[in-house]
What does this fold into?
Amino acid sequence: MKRLAKWVGILVSVLFLSGSAWGYDALDHIKVAPNGKGDLMWFKYYVAAPNGWETKISVTNTAAVSVVAKVVIRSYKNSTELLDFMIYLSPYDVWTAKIYWDGSATKIYSEDSSCRNQNGNWASAAEPLDYALKTIGTSNMPFCADDSTTMGYIYVVQSAWSNAPLDAVKGSPNFAAAGVSKADIKKWFENKAGGPFVTWPVNATFLNTGTWNNSLAGYQLFFNRLLGMWSSAVQATVLRDYKSTKYLDLAATDRLGSLVSNNSLGEIEAAIAKTEIDLPYVSASDKATVHIFSAVTKYTTGSDCTVSKFTYEGPWYDIYTHADGRVIVSGVEIWDVDEHKTTSEHFSPSPTSGWRNEVEIFAVPHDWPEGHVRYPFSGVPVVAADGVLADNGTSLVTYAGIPILSTVVFFGDYDSYSIEGAWSNAAVTVGGIALPFYQYADGITAVIP
It folds into this structure.
C-alpha cells in the first residue's frame, strides 16, 4: 500500500506541476482510442485482385447520435485519392461495403442505405453503389502511371454529428433516435448554417453536453470469394478527439494534413509512432506469411512517380527518407522459436533497402518454419507544431519512431487470418512534459482519465 501511495503521489505532483497546459492538452490532443471508438479511423490496407480477392469494410456508429463522415480511398504507392464520398449514420447504424475487382477495374460495392450510389440515390439491393475507382495512368488520373488501384488504404473522418431532439416547430426530426431518415440527416447537415448539426466552425457552440463525440468503430475482412477463403476480422485503427473543424463535402481532395482540425498531422503521427514493430511468421510449402505496413501520413506527391524529388506532408517522412522517396529502415532481425537470429536478407522485396510505397507488403520466406521479425525504428525525435490550442499553437509535439500501421496475414491450405502484431510506441511530449495518454508507451503505467 505504501508503494502504491508513493506512485500516486508522484503522479499527482506531475499533474499539478504541469498546470493548466497539461489539463487542456489532455483533452485536446488526438490519441489512440483505448476502447476502439473515435472520430478518425484507418482501414490499414485493402486488396482487390483477380481471381476473387476482395476486402470488406464496416463502420459502426455506437451511440445515440447521428453522424456524417467522409470515406477516402487512397492508392498504395503515392496516396493518390481514388474516391471519396459521404456516409450518413443514424444512431446505432452500421455501414458496410466491399472493394473488389470486376475483371477490368477496381470497384466499391454497397447495398447499404447509409450511402448514396453513383446515380445519387440511396443505395439498396435493387440499386447498389457499384462504382469504379479512378484508373491511374489514364486521362482522369494522368500522373503516377506505375501506381495501382488494386491495393491501397482507406480512412474515415467524422465531419459532424447531432443528438438534437425532435423539434416540430422547425420541422427537424429526432437525431438521437434510431431509424432517423438518412435523407433528413443529409438535408440538415447540408443546411449547416441553421441546422442542428454540430459542425465546426459554423456551429462553434455545442448543442448538448459540450464534449466532442467519439462513437465510430470499424473492422475489415480480407477474403477470396471464389475459394471461400476468409480471414478473421481486424479492427480498424481508431483515434479519438481528432476534432475536424472543416465542413467536409465532395468539393475538394482532403488530406488529413490539410483539414482544419484541433490536431495537426504531426499530432496524428505522434499518436501512432512506433519505435519497434514485432510481427510473427510461419513458412512452409503449404503456408505463407505477409507483413503489411501502411504509411498513412506520408503522402508522397509529384508529377511523375519516377522522379527523385518528393514532398511529404508527414513531418517524420520529410526527415527520414532517401532522396528517391524510400523510407530509411535501420535494420531487420529474423528470429526463430529457439532464439536463433539472422539479419541476412530473406524477404521479397528487401525491407532494409528502404520502403518506397505508402502500403508495403513483404512476403516472409525463410528456412525456419516459425518465428518473429523485429523491425526497429530509431532516430532523432521529430518536433512538429501542434494544432489549435489555448496558447495559440506555440506548444510543440515531440516524438520518435515511425508513424506507421502494421498487419500480419497468414495463409494456409484453406483459409487465411490477420492480426496486428506487437509494437513499442514512442514517448510523446509537449513542452517537455510526457503525455502518457497519447498512446500506451512501454514503461508508463499512469492512467489519465
The helical segments are 2-28, 182-190, 265-272, 315-319. Residues 1-27, 200-209, 387-393, 445-449 have pLDDT under 50 and may be disordered.
